[in-house]
Design brief:
The complex is a heterodimer of chains A (662) and B (179). In chain A, a hairpin with a 4-residue loop joins strand 7 (582-584) and strand 8 (589-598). Among the domains of chain A are: 425-515 and 616-622, no CATH class; 517-613, no CATH class. Chain A is globular, with a radius of gyration of 26 Å. A 5-stranded antiparallel beta sheet of chain A has the order 2-3-4-5-6, with no helix packed on it. Chain A has a 4-stranded antiparallel beta sheet with strand order 1-9-8-7, covered by helices on one side. Residues 300-305 and 639-662 of chain A have low confidence and may be disordered. Chain A has helices at 2-30, 33-36, 39-62, 69-74, 81-86, 92-113, 119-143, 167-196, 201-232, 243-268, 272-295, 308-336, 347-379, 387-407, 418-424, 426-441, 447-470, 478-487, 490-515, 615-632, 644-648, and strands spanning 517-523, 528-531, 534-545, 550-558, 563-571, 576-580, 582-584, 589-598, 604-612. Chain A is α+β, with helices and mostly antiparallel strands and 662 residues long. In chain A, helix 6 (92-113) runs antiparallel to helix 7 (119-143), helix 9 (201-232) packs antiparallel against helix 10 (243-268) and helix 10 runs antiparallel to helix 13. The longest helix of chain A is centred in the middle third of the chain and has 33 residues, at 347-379. Chain B is α/β, with parallel strands linked by helices. Chain B has one domain (33-178): Glutaredoxin (3-Layer(aba) Sandwich), CATH 3.40.30. Chain B has 5 helices and 7 strands. Chain B has helices spanning 2-25, 78-92, 107-117, 131-136, 163-178; strands spanning 46-48, 56-58, 68-73, 98-103, 124-127, 143-147, 153-158. Chain B has a 5-stranded mixed beta sheet with strand order 5-4-3-6-7. In chain B, strands 1-2 form a two-stranded antiparallel ribbon. The longest helix of chain B is centred in the N-terminal third of the chain and has 24 residues, at 2-25. The chains are: A alpha+beta (662), B alpha/beta (179). At the A-B interface, helix 11, helix 12 and helix 13 of A face helix 1 and helix 2 of B.
Chain lengths: 662, 179
């Protein structure tokens, strides 16, 4: 009964989404305020209806209603509560339902916070958001109904893939979807702007917080996924350049570029059509990601629903979205460009450089990801493009980005003095050279590592120099500096934190890539294992019973007496096994132990890794996310804040140019 | 001229969609890994049988005049465990004949494995060091090869056998080969 209610609510949502699309669009075309006003309540009702539908599916999982096919296929009565809930989105149908739920959530948020938006822009934005909803709701209802019933329900379900029974994976998809789908809002804003045929700085002011929100979620989502791969897959890696990882990295690059170009539109009224283009591309990349995961055209650990019909349907949606929006772009964008002449050496010049680099990187990843598909279509040959390609292309592209990132924030708008900025950065030169010498002499590090560590230090110190410059540290009395520091806008702190996060991330990535050690061997209980100057004792294997699995537990003892336990779990219901690595995280490096296969005569295979600085990878991502959130909390960007300033901002073209941020 | 510049994204998008759509429309499946040995004879081998005192299993034995399956498996692989009940059912129905290749597995472990799950195989060759697996180009266990009556490889399936794989691909192919 409740499942039918959920199904009905989903149909209702589709109808409401149609209303949300057609009536406001027509209303905006004929300038009828009453018709345009329908967009707001429709967006909220659509969210409510999908919310009911999602709640109904969750309820079916909670009570283990195996008469619903989806529950029977993906759940089991003996599963812990949290994984019954996460089971809702750990399958194709449920995850698509989560997708539209978040889509409708963003629509409702625009409706709720967008009271200050001009009526026609709001109506058009919500109409486009509604149109995306129509596409995906139709996709769910026609090809992937999560509420389908089985006539003869089984006594118990098939269970959930044990790899997915993990807290990281319970959170990773919703977070990633918040990011992917959050970019739908900027897409809708961009299409609305194209329909209106104008982009002014206030538009950028509206687009920036939404991009920032989506970017934060995307960053956190990618970090969670990479963390999960690190501790759950038991290979000790954190990024594999898997097609689906790339599918989340491309929108991230596009969103990063968008975030920065929107600043230029806001402050200088330039780069308008480029920013609109990036907003379209960022969401197109999200859709592409959805397509790659859902259609199974590429082999990947994530491809759990290989179904050509579904693939074609999503490809159709992707085609409508990008072809439609690019036609609109080709038609309207040429008229939109302003005479935003600017010099290469300026803040906006730096931001353009960022955009060039980010888009090049995104294009490089796109080509590498899709190349196997193209080659197979043309020659039938199967290849897979892996880490060697991406490391050889993306990393060199990023090096100039990091160098420029240290200088850019010190440049003034319009016309900057590069020489003055370079002189201010003297502490960075000292620190970078110092790091290079330390890495070379003390660590005897390879060239790549010296370069990487130096870049991390360069960036971190340059961020601090820029901050010190803003508060005039050591140039005016300390008390005045402190009050300047307290008075800096949150957006400035957000920027510094995010850039610092990048430096910290590089530190972690370089540490892990160049300084890891690995030992793989057979051991008898009591054997000593030496690795990277440390010693572990393998104590033996114990058998244990978990809630829905049985485990062999390998016990390792460190020199300091600490015990680490790595498990090999067998899930009898799902007939599969997983490995739980034993990880002791420390700032200087993780010790990572995995119990492998049983070998002859009671011996076990074990793998031990020492991974220096690896923790900083995720701390860096956390800092970037935090930076985004701090920036989002800035008064001038706060989405829902009642703002007289914002209302005024709609008239003068350069109202966004205030000094507070420079 | 400037207008043309703004058409570039559209062209890119159309190209991309064609690129992505073609494999789906042409029915390519990334899970299918064609064997390099397609339509070639099974690489010659002469391996001990798993049954003690059962002599050896040779590659010529696979050319029975009727199509058979050669299933590469190991007791240490979970999907192998999962596909055994299906194979047993099909063997009991007389739908297929399966030879086994116990790949990089200890004979005792293989025997225990089959004791618990039941034995669908007509005979099992023991490939202790995985040598024959290399000749066959085994990508990962389990793998299943369709061998025609003359002992030639006609199809390779990588991964677990599922009901739909067997019913929609292997059995129709075997019927076709048998004429």
């Amino acid at each position: 009964m409740i499942a039918e209610l959920g199904h009905l609510a989903l149909i209702a949502a589709l109808v409401v989404a149609l209303v949300q699309t057609l009536i406001p669009l027509y209303g905006a075309a004929v300038a009828d305020p009453r018709l345009m006003a329908i967009a707001r309540p429709a967006a909220m009702v659509q969210f409510l209806a999908i919310g009911i539908s999602f709640a109904a599916l969750t309820q079916a999982y909670l009570v283990s209603d195996f008469s619903v096919v989806n529950v029977a296929m993906n759940s089991h009565s003996s599963k812990p509560l949290i994984y019954k809930i996460s089971g809702v989105w750990a399958n194709h149908e449920g995850s698509m339902l989560l997708w539209v739920l978040i889509l409708a959530l963003f629509g409702a948020a625009v409706a709720a916070f967008g009271r200050n938006l001009p009526l026609d822009l709001r109506a058009r934005t919500l109409a486009v958001q509604g149109l995306i909803g129509v596409g995906f709701l139709a996709f769910i209802l026609f090809t992937s109904n999560p509420f389908e019933r089985i006539p003869n329900p089984p006594l118990d379900g098939n269970g959930l893939n044990p790899l997915l029974q993990d807290i990281g994976l319970a959170l990773h998809p919703p977070m990633l979807y918040l990011g992917y789908v959050g970019l739908s809002t900027t897409f809708s804003f961009a299409v609305a702007a194209l329909l209106e045929g104008r982009v002014d700085p206030a538009w950028a002011r509206w687009v920036r917080p939404w991009t920032l929100a989506a970017w934060c979620a995307l960053t956190a989502g990618i970090a969670l996924g990479s963390g999960w791969a690190y501790y759950e897959l038991g290979w000790g890696g954190w990024w594999f350049w898997d097609p689906v990882e790339n599918a989340s990295f491309m929108p991230w690059l596009a969103a990063t570029a968008l975030l920065h170009s929107a600043i230029v539109v806001e402050k200088r009224g330039a780069l308008k059509s480029w920013t609109v283009f990036l907003a379209l591309v960022a969401f197109a990349m999200s859709l592409l990601g959805t397509f790659l995961v859902r259609s199974g055209v590429l082999t990947s650990v994530h491809a759990f629903a290989v179904d050509p019909d579904r693939g074609l349907f999503i490809l159709g949606l992707l085609a409508v979205a990008i072809v439609g929006s690019f036609i609109l772009f080709a038609w309207r964008a040429p008229k939109m460009e302003s005479g935003g002449m600017f010099r290469p050496v300026s803040r906006e010049g730096g931001l353009v450089l960022n955009n060039l680099i980010m888009s090049t990187a995104a294009a490089t990843v796109l080509i590498g990801t899709l190349y196997p598909l193209a080659l197979e279509s043309m020659t039938g040959e199967k290849v897979s493009v892996g880490p060697p390609y991406f490391e050889a292309t993306v990393v060199p592209i990023m090096i100039p980005a990091i160098l420029a990132l240290g200088i850019g924030p010190l440049l003034a708008w319009k016309r900057a003095n590069l020489k003055a900025a370079l002189i201010k950065l003297w502490p960075s030169y000292l620190a970078t050279a110092g790091m290079a010498v330390v890495a070379l002499v003390l660590l005897g590090a390879p060239v790549g590592a010296i370069l990487g560590l130096s870049l991390a230090v360069w960036l971190a110190v340059s961020v601090l120099v820029e901050w010190a410059d803003r508060i005039k540290l050591f140039r005016i009395p300390f008390g005045q500096s402190a009050s300047r520091a307290a008075g800096l806008p949150r957006a400035a702190y957000g920027m510094s934190l995010a850039h610092l996060g990048m430096a910290v991330f590089i530190l972690g990535a370089v540490g892990e890539t160049f300084f890891s050690s690995e030992v793989v061997r057979y051991v008898d209980p009591g054997d000593k294992i030496e690795i990277a100057g440390r010693e572990l004792v393998f104590e033996g294997v114990e058998h244990r019973q978990g809630p829905n699995y049985v485990a062999e537990v390998g016990i390792f003892k460190l020199e300091d007496g600490e015990v680490m336990e790595s498990e090999r779990r067998v899930y009898p219901v799902e007939q599969t096994s997983t490995t739980e690595a034993a990880i002791r995280p420390r700032a200087w490096g993780d010790i990572y132990a995995v119990l492998g296969e049983k070998a002859d005569n009671g011996r076990s295979t074990i793998r031990i890794y020492v991974k220096p600085l690896v923790l900083w990878i995720w701390i860096g991502c956390g800092l970037m996310t935090l930076g985004g959130l701090v920036s989002l909390a800035d008064r001038r960007l706060r989405v829902g804040a009642p703002g007289k300033r914002r209302a005024e901002a709609w008239t003068p073209a350069h109202a966004g140019m205030d000094a507070g941020d420079d | 001229m400037r207008r043309l510049f703004f058409l570039l994204p559209l062209l890119g998008a159309l190209f991309l969609i064609g690129w992505l759509g073609y494999p789906i429309l042409a029915g390519h499946n990334p899970q299918v890994l064609p064997s390099a040995l397609l339509d070639k004879p099974v690489p010659a081998f002469d391996l001990p049988s798993l049954e003690e005192g059962d002599g050896s299993v040779t590659s010529t034995e696979l050319a029975t005049g009727a199509p058979v399956l050669l299933n590469v498996f190991a007791s240490w692989c979970a999907p192998c465990r999962a596909e055994i009940p299906l194979m047993r059912r099909l063997v009991d129905d007389g739908a297929i004949t399966v030879y086994g290749l116990a790949y990089k597995d200890e004979p005792k472990a293989t025997r225990d494995f089959l004791k618990t799950l039941g034995n669908p195989y007509k005979r099992i060759a023991v490939d202790r060091n995985g040598r024959v697996g290399i000749d066959l180009g085994v990508y990962g266990v389990p793998e299943t090869y369709v061998i025609d009556g003359q002992g030639r490889i006609r199809y390779r399936h990588v991964g677990e056998l599922t009901r739909s794989v067997v019913e929609e691909q292997l059995i129709p192919l075997m019927r076709e080969i048998a004429g």
